[in-house]
């Protein structure tokens, strides 16, 4: 949709994202996880809007600190959004533990008993991730589903006012997300207030499927506005 109205879109696969074949268990740091994003930002000579979803908010946050001169605005779509001295998992680790206790997801451990990645139970994944999404998008989403790195959620982030703090942040929250519920999202954006917050009332954990036209409107508005 954005390309149809003449926006240039660059979709980056973060380390272990799926196209990149690194095992999520081998992703030890946020710097490593974020490398495709920071490499791209280092390669350009203009500013862009950066959008992150879920734990991808950690990569956006890291890039804001490392490449502040390349980011016009940062948009967090029901994403983690830590402050200086916090971990990305501060407000979602409790939810992940609850989901694990309900057999919705599993922690994967190394031979030392340390959790290294998370995998979601595919039998219930559609109910938690795509509950408001069209059937064909559920099928696509399930085909693309992969494990997530865990170590990055517990890394303390070091952010400065001059870099991270110089970029305007915006948050898009979804009310029908069963994986990261609206209550968890509220903790995130209340703890670290953005410039503005936008709501997708019928959005599930995958609003790019369930609320695509409305998400498009918010992104286009942010790209065109003087916020």
UniProtKB/TrEMBL annotation:
This is AB hydrolase-1 domain-containing protein. It comes from Riccia sorocarpa.
